[in-house]
Amino acid sequence: MDEVYGFYNKTSSETLDLAKYFKEYNDLTNLKSLAGLRSNRNEKAGILEIMQMDVNDEDFAVLSEYCSIENLTIPGESFEKYDDTRLGNRKGTYEVKEIPKDVNLETLTKLKERIGLPQRPFVHNLKYRSEICIEPEKVETFKCNSLMEPGNEMLVFVRIYAPFVHQHRLSSVYVSKIFTTHIVAILGSQTLAELRDIISCTSDLSIAKEVSANPDAGARQPQAKEVYKSGFFYIESTFYNDFRDPSNMDNSEVIREWAKKRNLGPFKTASMESVTINSLSVKFGYPWVYQHQGTCEHLLVFSDARLIGPSDNLTISSYPRIHRMRASSTKYCMVCGVFAASWITTHNDRLPHDPCYFCTTCFHSFNYIDGKKIENFLAYPVPFGDVAQD
Ligand SMILES: [Zn+2]
Ligand SMILES: [Zn+2]
Questions:
Q1: What are the LIM zinc-binding domain coordinates in residue numbering (predicted)?
Q2: Strand order across the beta sheet in which 231-235 lies
């Protein structure tokens, strides 16, 4: 497949065997003793344990001063400091005050180039402004039996992109912008099926059944994800199918047959519920695919991986979790403009808008008289809590 998508190799890492990589890393370092630091309430004793040394209070105070992070600040520093690189809003990182002249740093050279570019408002500083950081839930760890040991488990971050319309170079189909909908943090010991379960997509929540004749009964239809449960991940030449339900189908079969005729592949298949994240070998930064509901395809990118540290939430049941997500706008009723849309109509003879969004009250009052449908239209319930993207 590198012949087709080799372009992305330029921006991605080499293929990494996650389990092997972190085992070698763990063997090299003394990270196991992070567990000691966490369990040791006395911070000084914990630090000395990791350093494998013993010093008196006076020497410890001197060492603390020498090693203080404050010493990394220089007079006239260009950047504002931020406290937490993982959870904070990072816009402050790029807010330049003054660039020192005689400092030969590549970062400053690039920064000068970037400032010299035509100003595009809302580009640089908005990188994270459209995303919401989700604070980990506060769990009272002493109540939990299944706690992880810091340094013993890996945390992998996966970016999930919104489905988009692929543009054929000869077609004039409108191409939607590709953007991340959420970033998931998942443990190495968890499976791809658990990753699938936390990916939220409107097409899973939809009820793709026309119910204008009897809308009240129609709204109680099962959601698409309860009916069409098949889906797969495509990662490193392998299709990982969801076979948790015996009726699920191998959606990759038709793709593999198509590829065979074009001498693409070979491809392997596996079941996503039997494959753990740490058993994967992946390229970081390389786009892979999650497909569900037959045609809904999302790009997904492994963006980061690290060992769990003492400051992370150590409760296994808290993962996988949404780490960051894109803020999205609610579709409002196009009649009253006050309430969120609960219904969508198409081919409505009495309306200029196709489709048209309605709240429940406006839907019934505009389209029905004494419960009887007026004129022709098709109606579909909007999924509960729908957050349709513009
Ligand atoms: Zn989807
Ligand atoms: Zn309304």
A1: 333-366
A2: 131-133, 321-326, 180-187, 154-161, 296-307, 287-292, 231-235, 238-241, 268-271
**Which of 233, 232, 272, 285 minimizes the C-alpha distance to 16?**
285
Cα separation, 37 vs 75, whole angstroms: 34
- Whether 42 and 29 have beta carbons less than 8 Å apart is answered as no
Q: Where are the domains of the chain?
A: 40-81+90-127, 139-209+219-326, 328-390
Residue 192 contacts residue 373 (beta carbons within 8 Å): no
Contact 159, 183 (CB under 8 A): yes
What's the whole-number mean pLDDT along residues 140-147?
64
The alpha carbon of residue 381 and the mean position of all alpha carbons in its chain are separated, in whole angstroms, by: 27
241 forms beta bridges with 232, 271
pLDDT number for residue 386: 41
The predicted-structure confidence for 305-315, as pLDDT tens digits, reads as follows: 998 887 788 88
Q: How many angstroms is it from 341 CA to the middle of ligand 2?
A: 7
Kindly report, residue by residue over 169-205, the tens digit of the pLDDT: 555 555 667 888 999 999 999 999 999 999 988 888 8
199: CA distance to ligand 1 center in Å?
8
CATH class name, domain 139-209+219-326: alpha beta
Q: Quote the ligand 1 centre to 297 CA distance (angstroms).
A: 6
- Residue 240 scores a pLDDT above 80: yes
Token look-up 């991605």 returns 12
Distance from the alpha carbon of residue 201 to the mean position of ligand 1, in angstroms:
5
Ligand nearest to the CA of 299: 1
Omega within 30 of 0 (cis) for the link into 320: yes
C-alpha separations of 170 from 30, 173, 203, 242 in Å:
57, 9, 27, 34
